[in-house]
Amino acid sequence: MSDTTIRHGKKRFYDNAKFPRGFAKSGDFTLAEEEILTLYGDTLQALETGELTPENEAEEHFLTLLDNPENANSKVERTWLKYVRLARGRKRFHTLNGRNKPDAGDDYVEEDASLNEED
């Protein structure tokens, strides 16, 4: 599936709290990224929390990657960083209302037509 030697998880990885309909249906991940997260997510989360110790060079590189995300060099690492950013980062909220209120001088004043008529 991928170009990494990171172990597959003992179980499939899901995040029902942040992505209750699944990773791909959220609109944030591709089908390939969803497959990577479900296969490797359990292992990556355990490595990140310290429940697992790294067994090879790829897993050791993943742990150093957590402090230096710009060093991601595999699809698995980039997908995990994307997941962390979306799941743990601040969610953007877009409203339809603007923040700026119009100035007092910008008020629309309707002129009285009778004042503009010449006698």
Automatic annotation (TrEMBL):
Endpoints of the signal sequence:
none
Similarity annotation: Belongs to the MaoP family.
**Protein name from the UniProt record:** Macrodomain Ori protein
Can you name the source organism?
A: Vibrio cidicii
UniProt superkingdom: Bacteria
Q: Enumerate the residue ranges of region (Disordered).
A: 94-119
Q: Name one Pfam family in it.
A: DUF413
From start to end residue, where is composition biased (Acidic residues)?
105-119
